[in-house]
Amino acid sequence: MIARNLSRRYAPEYDPASGITRTPLLLLQAPPAPDERRFYLHILAAVGAPATALSARAQNVASLEVRVIALLRDLGLRMIMIDEVHNLLAGTHREQRRFLNVLRYLSNELEVSLVCLGVSEAVDAIRGDIQLTRRLDEHHLPNWRDDAEFSDMIQTLIAAMPLEKKSNLKVKSLKQILALTGGMTSRIFALIKDLSIDAIVTGDECITDDAIAKWTPVWSRHANAHRRLEKSGV
């Protein structure tokens, strides 16, 4: 969410004078495995490189590297953000090192900032390259706690939902949300979205304390369904 928000804030802008679309920030997703060629192809697709540029002649890694560097230089790029960096761990140690070398090379050659995002294992992936580890600061998103900041976030989130009535939740319900989600941001958003949909469908048009008390997390439903299947021998 943070990456997409930044990507929207610094969206590409067309410069009619030069005929070039300036792209200050490029958001990419790491390939399922540390594959240099696939990564370069993803970059070309992300910047809208014409299909003719992806001919058989330009399929080898060296040619792709030259073309990617040339294109990114013309974009006025300032930052590269790579999500799902933990995918690097799906490759061998040698493949991981080569991919990390590519990231460091792009950052050095283009003189751009590098931001890597992922789950906790992403840190282990980056530590495969000492120079990258020294260059990148680690920032962890902590789980939400029972405090005023969490209360403000919930109120802001609910206010953004297309509900016709105000949701006046009690402190007990806020604690219940924390208990149900473990304070994880993605689960909190899923909970509020799910309850908002239910409120619209039922006509309540607001999230109530009773709705929170009765709500069953999607992840719990899946666990219950799995247990029922095991009992039935499926």
Automatic annotation (TrEMBL):
Q: Which SUPFAM superfamilies match?
A: P-loop containing nucleoside triphosphate hydrolases (SSF52540)
Checking Gene3D superfamilies in the record gives: P-loop containing nucleotide triphosphate hydrolases (3.40.50.300)
**Superkingdom of the source species:** Bacteria
* Pfam families reported for this sequence: TniB
What protein is this chain from? Answer: TniB protein
